[in-house]
């Protein structure tokens, strides 16, 4: 009875806060396995520039769940209430899932056991879709705080086979990182794009051909790199408070893992891992007894096994979100990802924008997972 009253009250809250216009319909979705990208992606040129508009209404991925559509309206129209309502929705989703599981457990020896198992499975799938939407909207909110909109579907930004992304928003995308982490990120960007750290305007606007499947892999790798650096920087801050000695480096030792190091780990078994892997990294670090000098030294102290663990997404909901986002960004909106190995022409400035956005997305994803997990227990992603 109490649950019914709570639901009615919550429905009343939604009725008062939901905008008058209905939310946009959600597109059909299609699934990919991270690290197992097809040989190429098809991106079709659009008829006019009006389709490549940067706004919170034009993000690549649209919410599919009722909760996601409701919160999307809140983000657009009642921004000051957004976080309060997100918190309430997370609690409701947690209660709904727990109730379905409890009924399944109680009825496991009854004639209704099969029915309640099915109900619990349906509720679990519904909650996972809703949580992925909540994650995405929280990430969009974080981007909006630095006045950056996600690049819309690339199919809407291609003109005669050329991709150009404006405005670049490099400064805003870099502003979320500390100076020490930003130096590592700039090394990553240079390794990915081939563009030096302080390029001239002419160098930035030079064009280069690039295969679309490679561009998608670069984007995913950069999401994971941002996710990795966020995890490592927080762990570094914790360990720095426990140690005041200096970290010695062997002659010739690299200052930070390169993009090529990360790219080698872009297999399904590496990218999709268990949350406990990150929490137990202390057992895998090397040279920690020598202390920590700076974050570059700290990052260097990770051996390949620990690097792999930090690059894993912790929850199934995050995995689903990244898959959906990549599909929405690089798909053609109808058929999804295809087997064509198309080549597009783009500027180094546009490549840098995509890489910086992906790194920021990964960093925000880590923070969002951490926030949600305190209100709604996320599902650990176990490698099969």
User: How many β-strand stretches?
Assistant: 4
- Percent helix, as a range, is 40-55%
The total count of helices amounts to 15
Coarse shape: globular
Q: What Rg, in angstroms, do the CA atoms define?
A: 22 Å
- The share of residues in extended strands comes to under 5%
Order of helices and strands: HHHHEEHHHEHHHHHHHEH
Strand count, sense and barrel status of the largest sheet are: 4 strands, mixed
Estimated structural class: mainly alpha
Distance between the termini: 41 Å
> What is the residue-mean pLDDT, rounded to a whole number?
75
Q: Which runs of at least 5 residues are low in confidence (pLDDT < 50)?
A: 1-50, 244-290, 333-339
- Strand order in space, largest sheet: 1-2-4-3
InterPro entries: At3g17800-like, DUF760
Organism: Phaseolus coccineus
Protein name: UV-B-induced protein At3g17800, chloroplastic-like
Region (Disordered): 1-28
Task: Describe this structure as you would to a colleague.
The protein is mainly α and 384 residues long. It contains 15 helices and 4 strands. It is 55% helix and 4% strand. The chain has a 4-stranded mixed sheet. The longest helix is centred in the middle third of the chain and has 33 residues, at 113-145. 40% of the residues are buried. This is UV-B-induced protein At3g17800, chloroplastic-like.
């Amino acid at each position: 009875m109490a649950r019914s009253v709570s639901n009615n009250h919550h429905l009343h809250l939604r009725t008062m806060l939901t905008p008058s216009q209905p939310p946009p319909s959600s597109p059909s979705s299609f699934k990919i396995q991270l690290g197992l990208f097809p040989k190429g992606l098809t991106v079709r040129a659009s008829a006019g520039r009006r389709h490549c508009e940067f706004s919170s209404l034009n993000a690549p991925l649209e919410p599919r769940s009722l909760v996601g559509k409701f919160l999307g309206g809140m983000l657009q129209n009642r921004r000051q209430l957004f976080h309060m309502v997100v918190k309430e929705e997370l609690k409701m989703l947690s209660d709904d899932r727990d109730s379905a599981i409890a009924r399944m457990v109680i009825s496991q020896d009854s004639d209704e056991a099969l029915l309640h198992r099915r109900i619990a499975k349906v509720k679990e799938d519904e909650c996972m879709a809703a949580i992925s939407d909540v994650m995405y909207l929280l990430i969009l909110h974080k981007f909006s705080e630095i006045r950056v909109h996600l690049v819309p579907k690339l199919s809407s930004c291609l003109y005669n086979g050329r991709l150009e992304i404006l405005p670049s928003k490099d400064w805003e995308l870099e502003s979320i990182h500390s100076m020490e982490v930003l130096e590592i990120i700039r090394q990553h960007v240079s390794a990915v794009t081939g563009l030096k750290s302080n390029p001239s305007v002419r160098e930035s606007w030079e064009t280069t051909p690039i295969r679309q499947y490679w561009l998608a892999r670069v984007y995913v790798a950069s999401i994971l790199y941002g996710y990795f650096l966020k995890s490592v920087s927080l762990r570094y801050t914790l360990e720095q408070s426990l140690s005041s000695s200096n970290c010695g480096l062997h002659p010739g030792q690299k200052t930070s893992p390169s993009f090529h190091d990360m790219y080698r780990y872009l297999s399904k078994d590496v990218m999709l891992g268990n949350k406990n892997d990150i929490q137990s990294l202390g057992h895998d670090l090397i040279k920690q007894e020598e202390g920590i000098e700076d974050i570059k030294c700290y990052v260097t102290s990770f051996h390949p096994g620990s690097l792999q663990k930090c690059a894993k997404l912790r929850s199934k909901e995050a995995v689903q979100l990244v898959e959906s986002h990549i599909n929405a960004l690089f798909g053609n909106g109808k058929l999804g990802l295809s087997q064509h190995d198309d080549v597009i022409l783009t500027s180094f400035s546009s490549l840098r924008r995509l890489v910086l956005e992906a790194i920021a997305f990964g960093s925000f994803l880590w923070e969002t997972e951490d926030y949600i997990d305190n209100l709604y227990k996320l599902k650990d992603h176990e490698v099969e």
